[in-house]
C-alpha cells in the first residue's frame, strides 16, 4: 500500500532527488535537516468517551486519530479441558476463604499467565481511507504497531488485574486524510500519545475477587503512571516506531513521499525506554519505578524493540536511460528491443536513475539503528517533543 | 519537531457546556467510562414568589404559561430566623428523617435540590418515592430546583474529591446562591428577605457551610427551635445523634463486636457467581425467632439458619448471602417454640451487649443440643448456613408497641431520652431499640417505627419513632396498623385520579342513541334475562349471568363482566393508581377500593334495572355442559335483578316460582353441577382454609358474634361459571398474544413439601398421602376420613393447603406452556377476568381480550413484556398482602368479639412441639399455642416423642397430647400485662 504508492516522478527527477539527498549534508526538497521531523500539531483527550485518545496533524495535511477503549475480560486459564473449570472454582474458593492474595499458588504464576495470553489482550485496528481493512499494507502496519507494543512484555503486565481478570485494550487507529506519505510514523506517534493519555478505572477490590472499580473517573490512574510532583510526566513511555531511510551515505528521518521514492533502504525502527532491572516484579512495580526514575531526570536509556524493512516505492520506479543507449541520442536501435534485460546489466551511470536492487546491507542497517538510538538523537528528540504535549 | 497545542478555552460555548465523567460498572461485569454533557442555563427559576427576575425569564410551555411559583413570599419564621426562612436540606437530612418532612406542623418552603434528589434515589428508592410524593403535594410548598443545570450553581467535581464531598459542595453552593439571589432579586429590605437555611446532619458539611457564611443547622438544632420541637426530636434517628457526638462514642465502637463482620460486596458477588455462596431472601420461622430459612436456587430444599450469630443481623425479608456450614454443624429444625418476647423479656435496653447470648437463650440452645444428640439417626440433620452479608435490606416501617417492662421507672418523668424496646406486631421482626423523650405518652399506643441501623456492637437493631396511631385496641388504630403492616395504600384517591372519572359523575348513562361512539362494536344484549348473584350487601357487582335454551337443544350461557376498561384507559393517573393498589382490600368493617367509588360501586357495577356496559363471554353448551362454541363481545346489558346467594337459593328451591328468570337460574345450576363434576374428575382439589365471618352490630359496628361461612349451591354456581369464563378467556388471549398474555398459574408443589404431612398421616392414622398428581392428592384427601371426627377431613385439607405453593400471575412469555397449569383447579391455562373492579390483573386481561377480538388497538402497555412482568410481580405481592390483611382483620375482630367472654370449644391439635402444641378451633377459625407452662403451675415435665408426634406430661399435670387429636379448650382473651397486647388465650380442659 502506502509504501508502494505510485510515484509520479520521471526518472530524471528521481535521479536528481537521489543525487541531492546523497550529498553531505543532504539537501531535502523541503529544506529540512536530515534528522528534522515535519512540524505537527498534537492534542490529546479529543474523544471524551474513550479511555485515552490523541490526534496528530502533520503540516502536509495528513491527520490521524487514535482512540483507546478498555474492557474487563476474564482471563483464560492456561490449562484446557475440565481442569479449567476446576481451577476457576478453586480460585473463587480462595477468594471466599480469604486466601486470595496470599501469594501465588504453585501451579499458575502471573508470568506464565501473561506470557501465554498477553498477545490477546490488545486488539489493534488500523483504518486508512481508500483501503480495505484486510489490505496487506494495512495489516502490515497494524502488525508492526502491535509488535512494538508487545515486544517488551511489559505492556501486557500493565493490563493485569488479578489471576482471573485482565483489561483488554482496543486501539482504534484512524488515518483521516488520504495517505500522502507512508503513515507509519504518524500513526505510531498518535498511538503513543493516546496510550500516554490512557487511564483505567481504579481497582477497589482486592486479590482475586471479581474486580470492582472506583466510579470516580478523576481517580482513575494512567496506564503509564506519572511521576508525582514536577509537571506530571509519565515515568515510562509507550514505544514509538520511526521511519528512517538511507540514500547513498545519508540517513534521513521522517521521509516525505518523494524522498521515499528514491530510498535505497527504508526501515521501521521501534524503540522503547529501557527498563530498570529492578522493576521486574509486578506487584511492586509502580512504586519502585517511581523511586527509580525520580533521580534520572537527564538521559533516558533507549532500547531497540524491533526493526522491519519497508519495501520502498523506489524499487518499482522505471529506470532512466543513459544517453549512450538512448536511440534518441543515436544509440543502436537493436538494443531497444529488450530494455528491461539490458538495464539490469548496465552499470550505474552518473546522473541516470536506476531503481535500487537487493536487500539492505547489514552495515547500512546498523548505521541506521545506531543513528536512531543515539543519545540526544532523533528518538530522544521525538520523545521529548511528545512529552511536551499536555495530557488531558 | 515542533508541537503546537490547541487551547480548549477557545471554544466560545465552553461556559455553557460542562460534562460529567464517571465510571459505570454494569451487572454483566462491563466497566465503562461514561461522559454526559451538561448544558447549563440561566433561566431555571428559583420559584420564590418574592422574586421578580425569575418570573420574566422562566421557561414557558407550548401554551405560553410558566409553572406557578411555589415558595411562599411570607415563609414561616423561627426563633433563629424571625424574618422567615426557606430550607435547603442535604441528602442525609432526607435519608435520616424523611418522617420529619412529612409532618404537617412544620417543614414548609423546602427547596429540594436535584443533586439531593438523585443521590436519594441511588440510596433508597422508597424514600425517593416519598420525597417525590411530597414535592407533588400542594400544601407543603416543596420545589425541586435543578441546580446541576443552572449555570451559577453547577459544580464540577474537583480532582480527588469524593462524590459525597462534591454533592455537599453543590448543596452549599446552591444554598448560597439562593440566599444571594433572593437578596438581590426581591429588592426588599435586607431584614425582610427570608433566610435560606441549609439542613444537614453531616458535621463536616455544617462546618464548611458556616465558614462560607451560609446559615446552616443540624436537624436537631433546627427542630429544637420549632414549636413542638420536643415531639419532633424523636423522629431524628439515633445513629445521627451519635454521628454528631461521635467523639463520645468512639470508645464504644472500638469495643467488642457481637456479630461477625459482613463480607465485602465484591467478595460476596464473586462467591455467588462461583457457586460457593448463595443468595436468597431470608425468612424467619414464625414459631422460633432464632431460626430462619433461606431458599436458594442451588438446592431444592431451604437451608436452615440457626442462632443469633448465624442469622447475623439479617431481618425477615432481607436479601442476604449465606455460606453453608460444615457438616458437623448441621442440625434438625427446632421442635421448640422460642418466642423472643418470652426469652428476652427482662433485657435492659440501655445496657448493651454485656452478654451476647443471654443465659436463657443458652439454655434453650442446650436443650436443642440434648435432643439432637439423643437421636442416633443422623439422616435427619439438615444443612445449615450462616449469613455472611446483606445485599439489600428490606426494612420498612413497622407497627409495634413499647415493651412496658423495658421502660425504666425513674427516667419516665424528665425530658431526657430513654431507651425502650419496641415489639413489632410482626413476630418475625426482632425487637427494635428506640430512644425517645416521650415514653409516658407512647406507652399503650400503637406506634410506627423504622429501623435505622444494626451495627455489630449492638444486639438489637436501633430505630426511631415515626408516629403514633392511637391507643392499643381502638378500632381506628388497629385498622390503620393492619393496613400499614400489609402495605395497603389507604390514602384517599388524589385529585389527578379523580380527574380521570367521567364528567357526568353519577348521572352517567349508557348513551340512548346506538350511533354514539360508545356503542361502536357493542352488542345490544339488553333484551336478555340477566341477573347477578353476590354476597349480601355487595355494591361492586363485577359479574352477571344469563342462560336461554337454543332451538337445537343446547343452551346459551352468558357471563357478563363489568366493562371497567372502558372507563380506565391505559397509562392515565387512574390506571397507574390502580396498578399500584393492585386489588381491593376487604377488611371486616372496611373496604379499601382499587378504583374510585364512582366507578366501583356505580358506573361499572352491574346494578339491576339500569343499562351498563359489559364485556360478555357467550357459550353454547351442550346438555352435558360441553362447550360447543364460545365468543367474546363488548355489550350493553340490563340486569333484571341483583340476588344475594341466599335469595337466589330460596328462589331456586321454591317450586312455586316458575318465571323465566328462576328457570334460567335452575338451568345454570344444573349445568354448573356438571361442570364441577368434570373439574373434580380432572383432579381439581377442593381445599380448605378456616373461614369465618364476623357479625357486626349494625349501628356501632362492634363485633357481636362469629360464624363459620355457610356454603350454598348458588355460590358454587357463580364460581363454576366464573372459572369457565376465566379459562376461556385465558385460552383466547394466549392465542392472540403468545408472549404477553397475562395468566395465572398455580405451580405443582414440590413433593418434599408434603413430606412432613404425609409422615404424620402415616404414623398417626396409617394413611398414605399420594402426591404424584393433583388427582391422586384429591383422591387421597377424600379418603382421609375419620368416622368419629367429621372435622378431620377438613383439618387435613387445611394442612395440605399450607403445603401448596401460592398461585401467581405471570406473563405467558416467561414460562413454558406446561408450566401454565393451575394445579388446584386442574386447568391447563387460567387467568383472572371476572373481577376487574377489584383486581388489576383482570383489567389487563380485559384490555388484552378487547385487542384480541379486535375491538380496539393493542395498547403498548399490554404488549410490553417487561412492563407486564413488573405488573405481575407487583400485583402478586399486593394480592398476597390483601389476603393477609383480610385474615388479620378477621382475627382481630374475632378477638374483640370474644373479649370478656370465656367459651369452651372443640379444637384440634395441628402442630406439636417439645414444649407446647398448636390448637385450631374451627368455630372461630383461630389457632393458638398452648405451652407446657400454660398447662399447670409449676410447669410439668414432658417427654416428647418426635417419631409418633406425642407429648406426654408428667408431674403437676398428666396429659398426653397427640397430633390431630381432638381437644376441649377454653377460649378467653387475655391481655399480657408486660407487653400490653391482647391476644387469644387457650387453656386445655381435656384431651378427647
From TrEMBL, chain A:
It is found in: Cytoplasm; Nucleus, Nucleolus. It comes from the Eukaryota. Keywords: Cytoplasm, Exosome, Ribonucleoprotein, Ribosomal protein. Transmembrane segments: none annotated. One of its GO terms (molecular function) is mRNA 3'-UTR AU-rich region binding. The keyword Kinase does not apply. InterPro entries: Exosome_comp_Rrp42_subfam, PNPase/RNase_PH_dom_sf, Ribosomal_Su5_D2-typ_SF. One of its GO terms (cellular component) is ribosome. GO terms for biological process: exonucleolytic trimming to generate mature 3'-end of 5.8S rRNA from tricistronic rRNA transcript (SSU-rRNA, 5.8S rRNA, LSU-rRNA); nuclear mRNA surveillance; nuclear polyadenylation-dependent rRNA catabolic process; rRNA catabolic process; TRAMP-dependent tRNA surveillance pathway; U1 snRNA 3'-end processing; U4 snRNA 3'-end processing; U5 snRNA 3'-end processing. Belongs to the RNase PH family. This is Ribosomal RNA-processing protein 42.
Automatic annotation (TrEMBL), chain B:
Residues 522-855 form the RNB domain. One of its GO terms (cellular component) is cytoplasmic exosome (RNase complex). Residues 85-207 form the PIN domain. PROSITE patterns: RIBONUCLEASE_II. GO terms for biological process: CUT catabolic process; nuclear mRNA surveillance of mRNA 3'-end processing; rRNA catabolic process; rRNA processing. Its cofactor is Mg(2+). It is found in: Cytoplasm; Nucleus, Nucleolus. It comes from Apodospora peruviana. GO terms for molecular function: 3'-5'-RNA exonuclease activity; endonuclease activity; RNA binding. Pfam families: OB_Dis3 (PF17849), PIN_4 (PF13638), RNB (PF00773), Rrp44_CSD1 (PF17216), Rrp44_S1 (PF17215). Residues 357-371 have a biased composition (Basic and acidic residues). Its main location: cytoplasm. This is Chromosome disjunction protein 3. The lineage of its organism: Eukaryota, Fungi, Dikarya, Ascomycota, Pezizomycotina. Residues 341-383 are annotated as: Disordered. Belongs to the RNR ribonuclease family. Keywords: Cytoplasm, Endonuclease, Exonuclease, Exosome, Hydrolase, Nuclease, Nucleus, RNA-binding, rRNA processing. InterPro entries: Dis3_CSD2 (IPR041505), NA-bd_OB-fold (IPR012340), PIN-like_dom_sf (IPR029060), PIN_dom (IPR002716), RNase_II/R (IPR001900), RNase_II/R_CS (IPR022966), RNR_Ribonuclease (IPR050180), Rrp44_CSD1 (IPR033771).
Amino acid at each position: 500500500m502506502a509504501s508502494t504508492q505510485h510515484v509520479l516522478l520521471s526518472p530524471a527527477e528521481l535521479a536528481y532527488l537521489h543525487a541531492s539527498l546523497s550529498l553531505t549534508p543532504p539537501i531535502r526538497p523541503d529544506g529540512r535537516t536530515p534528522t528534522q521531523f515535519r512540524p505537527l500539531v498534537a492534542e490529546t483527550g479529543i474523544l471524551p468517551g474513550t479511555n485515552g485518545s490523541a490526534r496528530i496533524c502533520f503540516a502536509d495535511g495528513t491527520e490521524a486519530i487514535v482512540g483507546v477503549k478498555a474492557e474487563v475480560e476474564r482471563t483464560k486459564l492456561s490449562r484446557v479441558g475440565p481442569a479449567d473449570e476446576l481451577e476457576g472454582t478453586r480460585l473463587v474458593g480462595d477468594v471466599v476463604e480469604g486466601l486470595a492474595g496470599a501469594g501465588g499458588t504453585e501451579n499458575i504464576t502471573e508470568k506464565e499467565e501473561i506470557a501465554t495470553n498477553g498477545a490477546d489482550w490488545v486488539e489493534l485496528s488500523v483504518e486508512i481511507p481508500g483501503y480495505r481493512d484486510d489490505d496487506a499494507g494495512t495489516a502490515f502496519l497494524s502488525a508492526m504497531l502491535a509488535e512494538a507494543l508487545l515486544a517488551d512484555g511489559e505492556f501486557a503486565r500493565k493490563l493485569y488485574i488479578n489471576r482471573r481478570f485482565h483489561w483488554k485494550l482496543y486501539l482504534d487507529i484512524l488515518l483521516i486524510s488520504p495517505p500522502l506519505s507512508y503513515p507509519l510514523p504518524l500513526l505510531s506517534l498518535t498511538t503513543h500519545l493516546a496510550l500516554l493519555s490512557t487511564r483505567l478505572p481504579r481497582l477497589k477490590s482486592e486479590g482475586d475477587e471479581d474486580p470492582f472499580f472506583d466510579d470516580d473517573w478523576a481517580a482513575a490512574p494512567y496506564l503509564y503512571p506519572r511521576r508525582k510532583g514536577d509537571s506530571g510526566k509519565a515515568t515510562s513511555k509507550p514505544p514509538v516506531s520511526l521511519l528512517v531511510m538511507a540514500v547513498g551515505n545519508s540517513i534521513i528521518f521522517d521521509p516525505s513521499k518523494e524522498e521515499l521514492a528514491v530510498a535505497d533502504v527504508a526501515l521501521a525502527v521501534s524503540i522503547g525506554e529501557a527498563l530498570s532491572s529492578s522493576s521486574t516484579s509486578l506487584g511492586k512495580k509502580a512504586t519502585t519505578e517511581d523511586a527509580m526514575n525520580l533521580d534520572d531526570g537527564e538521559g533516558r536509556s533507549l532500547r531497540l524493540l524491533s526493526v522491519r524493512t519497508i519495501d520502498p516505492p523506489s524499487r518499482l520506479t522505471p529506470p532512466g536511460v543513459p544517453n549512450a543507449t538512448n536511440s534518441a541520442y543515436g544509440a543502436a536501435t537493436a538494443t531497444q528491443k529488450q530494455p528491461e534485460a539490458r538495464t539490469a546489466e548496465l552499470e550505474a551511470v552518473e546522473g541516470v536513475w536506476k531503481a535500487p536492487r537487493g536487500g539492505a546491507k547489514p552495515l547500512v542497517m546498523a548505521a541506521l539503528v545506531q543513528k536512531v538510538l543515539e543519545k540526544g538523537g532523533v528518538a530522544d528528540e521525538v520523545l521529548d517533543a511528545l512529552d511536551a504535549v499536555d495530557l488531558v | 519537531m515542533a508541537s503546537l497545542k490547541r487551547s480548549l478555552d477557545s471554544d466560545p460555548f465552553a461556559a455553557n457546556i460542562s460534562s460529567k465523567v464517571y465510571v459505570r460498572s454494569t451487572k454483566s461485569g462491563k466497566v465503562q467510562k461514561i461522559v454526559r454533557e451538561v448544558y447549563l442555563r440561566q433561566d431555571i427559576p428559583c420559584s420564590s414568589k418574592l422574586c421578580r427576575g425569575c418570573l420574566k425569564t422562566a421557561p414557558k410551555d407550548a401554551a405560553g404559561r410558566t409553572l406557578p411559583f411555589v415558595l411562599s413570599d411570607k415563609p414561616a419564621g423561627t426563633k433563629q430566623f424571625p424574618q422567615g426562612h426557606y430550607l435547603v436540606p442535604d441528602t442525609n437530612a432526607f435519608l435520616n428523617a424523611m418522617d420529619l418532612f412529612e409532618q404537617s406542623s412544620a417543614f414548609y418552603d423546602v427547596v429540594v435540590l436535584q443533586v439531593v434528589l438523585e443521590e436519594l434515589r441511588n440510596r433508597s428508592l422508597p424514600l425517593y418515592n416519598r420525597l417525590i410524593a411530597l414535592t407533588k403535594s400542594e400544601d407543603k410548598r416543596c420545589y425541586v430546583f435543578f441546580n446541576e443545570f443552572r449555570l451559577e450553581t453547577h459544580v464540577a467535581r474537583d480532582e480527588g474529591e469524593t462524590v459525597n464531598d462534591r454533592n455537599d459542595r453543590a448543596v452549599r453552593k446552591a444554598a448560597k446562591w439562593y440566599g444571594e439571589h433572593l437578596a438581590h432579586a426581591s429588592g426588599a429590605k435586607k431584614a425582610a428577605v427570608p433566610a435560606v437555611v441549609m439542613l444537614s446532619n453531616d458535621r463536616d458539611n455544617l462546618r464548611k457551610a458556616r465558614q462560607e457564611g451560609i446559615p446552616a443547622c443540624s436537624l436537631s438544632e433546627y427542630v429544637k427551635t420549632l414549636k413542638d420541637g420536643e415531639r419532633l426530636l424523636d423522629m431524628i434517628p439515633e445513629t445521627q445523634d451519635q454521628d454528631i457526638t461521635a467523639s463520645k462514642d468512639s470508645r464504644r465502637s472500638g469495643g467488642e463486636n457481637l456479630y461477625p463482620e459482613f463480607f465485602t460486596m465484591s467478595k460476596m458477588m464473586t462467591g455467588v457467581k462461583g457457586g460457593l455462596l448463595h443468595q436468597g431472601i431470608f425468612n424467619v420461622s414464625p414459631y422460633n425467632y432464632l431460626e430462619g430459612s433461606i431458599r436458594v436456587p442451588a438446592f431444592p430444599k431451604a437451608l436452615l439458619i440457626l442462632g443469633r450469630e448465624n442469622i447475623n443481623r439479617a431481618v425477615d425479608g432481607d436479601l442476604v448471602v449465606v455460606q453453608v456450614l460444615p457438616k458437623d454443624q448441621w442440625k434438625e429444625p427446632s421442635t421448640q417454640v422460642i418466642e423472643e418476647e418470652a426469652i428476652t423479656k427482662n433485657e435492659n435496653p440501655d445496657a448493651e451487649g454485656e452478654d451476647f447470648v443471654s443465659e436463657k437463650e443458652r439454655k434453650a440452645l442446650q436443650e436443642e443440643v440434648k435432643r439432637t444428640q439423643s437421636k442416633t439417626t443422623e439422616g435427619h440433620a439438615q444443612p445449615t448456613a450462616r449469613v455472611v452479608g446483606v445485599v439489600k435490606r428490606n426494612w420498612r416501617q413497622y407497627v409495634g408497641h413499647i415493651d412496658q417492662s423495658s421502660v425504666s421507672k425513674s427516667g419516665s418523668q424528665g425530658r431526657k431520652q430513654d431507651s425502650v424496646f419496641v415489639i413489632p406486631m410482626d413476630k418475625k421482626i426482632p425487637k427494635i431499640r428506640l430512644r425517645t423523650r416521650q415514653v409516658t405518652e407512647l406507652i399503650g399506643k400503637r406506634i410506627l417505627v423504622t429501623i435505622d441501623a444494626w451495627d455489630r456492637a449492638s444486639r438489637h437493631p436501633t430505630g426511631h419513632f415515626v408516629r403514633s396511631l392511637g391507643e392499643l385496641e381502638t378500632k381506628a388504630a388497629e385498622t390503620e396498623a393492619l393496613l400499614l403492616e400489609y402495605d395497603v395504600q389507604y390514602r384517599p384517591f388524589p385529585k389527578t385520579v379523580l380527574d380521570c372519572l367521567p364528567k357526568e359523575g353519577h348521572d352517567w348513562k349508557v348513551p340512548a342513541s346506538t350511533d354514539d361512539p360508545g356503542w361502536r362494536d357493542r352488542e345490544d344484549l339488553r333484551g336478555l334475562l340477566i341477573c347477578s348473584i353476590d354476597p349480601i350487601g355487595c355494591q361492586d357487582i363485577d359479574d352477571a349471568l344469563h342462560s336461554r335454551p337454543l332451538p337445537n337443544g343446547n343452551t346459551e350461557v352468558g357471563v357478563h363482566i363489568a366493562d371497567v376498561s372502558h372507563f380506565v384507559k391505559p397509562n392515565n393517573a387512574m390506571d397507574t393508581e390502580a396498578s399500584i393498589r393492585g386489588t381491593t382490600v376487604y377488611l371486616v368493617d372496611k373496604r379499601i377500593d382499587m378504583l374510585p367509588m364512582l366507578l366501583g360501586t356505580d358506573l361499572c357495577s352491574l346494578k339491576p334495572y339500569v343499562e351498563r356496559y359489559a364485556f360478555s363471554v357467550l357459550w353454547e353448551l351442550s346438555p352435558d355442559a360441553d362447550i360447543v362454541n364460545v365468543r367474546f363481545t363488548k355489550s350493553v346489558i340490563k340486569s333484571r335483578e341483583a340476588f344475594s346467594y341466599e335469595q337466589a337459593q330460596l328462589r331456586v328451591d321454591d317450586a312455586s316460582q316458575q318465571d323465566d328468570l328462576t328457570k334460567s337460574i335452575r338451568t345454570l345450576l344444573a349445568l354448573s353441577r356438571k361442570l364441577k363434576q368434570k373439574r373434580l374428575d380432572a383432579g381439581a382439589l377442593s381445599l380448605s382454609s378456616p373461614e369465618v365471618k364476623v357479625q357486626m352490630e349494625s349501628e356501632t359496628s362492634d363485633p357481636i358474634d362469629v360464624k363459620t361461612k355457610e356454603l350454598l349451591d348458588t355460590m358454587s354456581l357463580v364460581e363454576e361459571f366464573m372459572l369457565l369464563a376465566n379459562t376461556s378467556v385465558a385460552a383466547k388471549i394466549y392465542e392472540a398474544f403468545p408472549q404477553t398474555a397475562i395468566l395465572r398459574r398455580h405451580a405443582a408443589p414440590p413433593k418434599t413439601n408434603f413430606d412432613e404431612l404425609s409422615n404424620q398421616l402415616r404414623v398417626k392414622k396409617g394413611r398414605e398421602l399420594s402426591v404424584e398428581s393433583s388427582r391422586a392428592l384429591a383422591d387421597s384427601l377424600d379418603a382421609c376420613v375419620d368416622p368419629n371426627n367429621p372435622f378431620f377431613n377438613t383439618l387435613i385439607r387445611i394442612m395440605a393447603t399450607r403445603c401448596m405453593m401460592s398461585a401467581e400471575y405471570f406473563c405467558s412469555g416467561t414460562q413454558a406452556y406446561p408450566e401454565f397449569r393451575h394445579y388446584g383447579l386442574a386447568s391447563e391455562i387460567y387467568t383472572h377476568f371476572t373481577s376487574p373492579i377489584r383486581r388489576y390483573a383482570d383489567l389487563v386481561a380485559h384490555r388484552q381480550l378487547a385487542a384480541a377480538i379486535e375491538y380496539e388497538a393493542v395498547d403498548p402497555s399490554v404488549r410490553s413484556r417487561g412492563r407486564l412482568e413488573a405488573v405481575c410481580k407487583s400485583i402478586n405481592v399486593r394480592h398476597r398482602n390483601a389476603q393477609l390483611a383480610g385474615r388479620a382483620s378477621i382475627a382481630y375482630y374475632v378477638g374483640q368479639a370474644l373479649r370478656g367472654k370465656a367459651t369452651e370449644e372443640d379444637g384440634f391439635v395441628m402442630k406439636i412441639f417439645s414444649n407446647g402444641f398448636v390448637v385450631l378451633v374451627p368455630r372461630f377459625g383461630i389457632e393458638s399455642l398452648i405451652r407446657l407452662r400454660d398447662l399447670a403451675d409449676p410447669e410439668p415435665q414432658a417427654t416428647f416423642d418426635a417419631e409418633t408426634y406425642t407429648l406426654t406430661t408428667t408431674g403437676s399435670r398428666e396429659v398426653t397430647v397427640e397430633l390431630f387429636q381432638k381437644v376441649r379448650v377454653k377460649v378467653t382473651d387475655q391481655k399480657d400485662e408486660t407487653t400490653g397486647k391482647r391476644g387469644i388465650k387457650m387453656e386445655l380442659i381435656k384431651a378427647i
